[in-house]
Design goal:
With 213 residues, the chain is α+β, with helices and mostly antiparallel strands. The protein has 5 helices and 10 strands; from the N terminus they run E-H-H-E-E-E-H-H-E-E-E-H-E-E-E. The strands form 3 sheets. Strands 1-2-3-4 form a 4-stranded mixed beta sheet. It has a 3-stranded mixed beta sheet with strand order 5-6-7, with no helix packed on it.
Amino acid sequence: MDITVVGRNAEISSRLRDYVEEKATKVEQFDPRVQRVEVEVTHERNPRQADTAERVEITVVSKGPVIRAEASSSDRFAAFDIAMGKLTERLRRARDRMKNHRRYSVEANEPVEAVVEEALVLPDTGDAPIEDSPSAPTQHGVAVESQLGDSPVIVRQKLHEAVPMSVDEALYQMELVGHPFYLFIEKSTKQPCAVYHRHGWTYGVIRLDAQVL
């Protein structure tokens, strides 16, 4: 398992790197298939945001779904611990869900691999230089930033592979990455959809009916 620690507007000390690597090794206890753990530390220079100046994002890439967690604090060690706590809970839920899928597959006399392969695997991410004019990305997982004409507006685009899934699976994936919404292709209708948090334990689904004119 590879562990990478990078900083944005932040220098990564050897003490922090050692601390992160020691804690991150526990990820394998929840997912032995993990390939790498990516930790990104961002420092916010705005003094008005001193209480949340240190933001840590942890991403686990394995043969299963990508799992992500982030947290902010005035101290980057504390931010990492909070993010690690969130990540551990999501890893535990993913492991328990996989066990339930396997149990159901065995009872239904279906191959376990068929269930595992349904998990959404996002490609590696990367950055590309800003282009002179807006254009759609063609390479999976590589971000393309484009400036809108002479304006200061920058549009960041990224192309991902889409595995058709149910609304239930989309909600599960959204919880794993810790985002307030999740884009997907609905399996039964083939419609582009987005699930999102509303309030409390309620969620919403937006569907697009693409009509060719």
